[in-house]
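Before a computer can learn anything about folding, someone has to put a protein's shape into writing. The outcome of that step, for a single protein, is printed below:
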Amino acid sequence: MSTTKVVHHSLLTDYDISLFRSGKHARMYEKLGSHIINVDGEWGTQFSVWAPNAQAVSVIGDFNNWERTAHPLAPRWDGSGIWEGFIPGVGKGKLYKYHIHAKDGRHLSKGDPFALFWEVPPNTASIVWEFDYEWKDKKWMDDRHEYQGLDKPYSVYEVHIGSWKKKMGGVESLSYREMADEMVSYVKEMGFTHVEFMPVMEHPYFPSWGYQITGYFAPTSRFGLPEDFMYLMDAFHQAGIGVILDWVPSHFPADAHGLADFDGTHLYDHADPRLGFHPDWKSCIFNYGRFEVRSFLISNALFWLDKFHVDGLRVDAVASMLYLDYSREEGEWIPNKYGGNENLEAISFLKEFNETVYKEYPDVTTIAEESTAWSGVSRPTYTGGLGFGQKWMMGWMHDTLDYFKNDPVHRSYHHNAITFSLVYAYSENFMLPLSHDEVVHGKGSLMQRMPGDEWQRFANLRLLYTYMFTHPGTQLLFMGGEFGQTSEWNFEKGLAWDLLEYDYHKGIQETIKGLNQLYRTEPALFEKQFEQEGFEWIDHGDYKNSVLSYLRKGKDEDRVVAVICNFTPIPREDYKVGIPFDGTWKEIFNSDRKEYGGSGFRPNDKLKPVEGDTHGRSFELSVNLPPLGAIVLEGKAKKKKKAAPKKSTKATK
């Protein structure tokens, strides 16, 4: 057993304590947790932990044979509830936990809430760590503001990091560094602007997909060291690709080594299960009214932006945070002080989170997964909004998938389902998600939901993607969708990459490449993606033919994009569409191209506007609409000739 004594030392100033206790400390990870430092010429580790209701706290680890009396920490004198101490000789790589002697007499062993690294599950010890990595993404970080903004394209590839691709006969996931070698080049080749990782923070239960987190400040050790994850982030940035992380401030698991019952009390959550227990996920709900908990969560958000150069945070399950009665029956929840079902403390927290993130990192984005009609999710806090940059458009996703599952012969009766999203498309800054949630729990893959024979199912999927990429908003597609995965996603297996040996699946992949190229290079599709004037119907009422046509517009008023979607397998020749001006019109995308697996039906090689009165416009085009296909046309107005200057009639001197 180690005989080294704990030295009384602190990294915390009075100002730190004041900020922490008022919920305003945004970088508490620099103070709490374990930090390798030098005290009076001797190297060791400073340990600091918040446990205000404990009788006693000590550090146990492989350096003292897990003896709970060997290294006791001292409580701070200021009533903050923080215990701290410096242990000489304890360095990087040492395993440790906090031993908590609770006031009710129980002895608890807890991982460090601020640990930077953890043992590989099912082991549960924290590891003393300090980062040692030299970033090479300076150009990306310096120029990031040029790639991220409400008028920039976001085509996001959502990834579950443990099941993207498997090795060793399909039983082992790739490491972070192997992902850097394979995933980065693939995402680049596919043309996505961003990748979004489902939670990478340390979690004990792999089937939770990462949404039950115990190590909020550590990338999971299943795939390598924290520096290996930095290497992966760096590789994406060097390839010009942004990285968004799933962040879960809505709930945490009740595992014995985690945040639950941390100091023998409901420290991070509520004691009353009507406030503190999540019925859907059987997990604990953070107490957003406790200032120290707010400091913990906001510090965690900034930690990933700071230390891992993350470009955005997608916040999980926001609806469950906003409503006190979320998934609860009458009598199972407590109204707020006004008698309503709004969680006022969570609302306040989300506003402060967004304000802090955008103040410290104005060139990143926050995205809300919010499934209700809550007003102003992606509106500034100074106008009463929650302050998110974007919000998932769940209504569009449900309506669109419901529409596509109908046999085309019946789609004319469901036309409103495919047009309704434009009624509210500009009420928020919407991201269109076809996420992991749509290909699990018996829902089947996207391909399985498409009706018809084999050709029609692939054509329907290409049509769905074209409609998605030309609809106002940003884009998100879950891995496997880009090549038409035929089976439901299984987190224990890798994607079915062998499907790319078949032409139809290769065609879906080429379609996504083409759509990403179109979306990223056509300003009309992204410059005003969140502004009403960026969209205009040509005709939303042709339900008899199940055809939709609309315009997308950017900042250049003389350059527009026209999209015409045919949701039936009946090809249509000389279909008339009204257009806003005479000029040069050309087909820039067609989901029915042969290289995409389509029929190649009568491409629109020659488009000549003529005067007319179709759809209330002065000019019209006759176009060929492929079966179960969409065409995208680019129009450029004729430049007006400048009048020649008049000759002066005055005599010259």
The longest strand covers residues 42-50. DSSP finds 14 helices and 30 strands in the chain. The CA atoms of residues 82 and 121 lie 28 Å apart.
